[in-house]
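Sequence and structure are kept together here, with a separate record for every protein. An example record follows, reproduced without changes.
>
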Amino acid sequence: MRIHIPASGLYTYPDWLIICGRKEYLDHKKDNIINPSVIIEVLSKSTSGYVRGEKFP
C-alpha cells in the first residue's frame, strides 16, 4: 500500500507497514493509507540519505 506523508506532501511505498485497527484512506480510491501504526524501512548506504531526509522528514 502507498502512504501519504502530510508533512512533506509525499506519496510513497514503505518497505513494510503495520496498521492497527481499521484502515483509513485518503480518498474513495482506497489506494493511499493515512493511518499506518508502524512504518519499516530497510536502510542501505545508497538509500539512507533519501529515506531519512526527503522520504520521512
Residues 2-55 form one domain. The beta strands are 2-5, 10-12, 16-18, 32-33, 38-40.
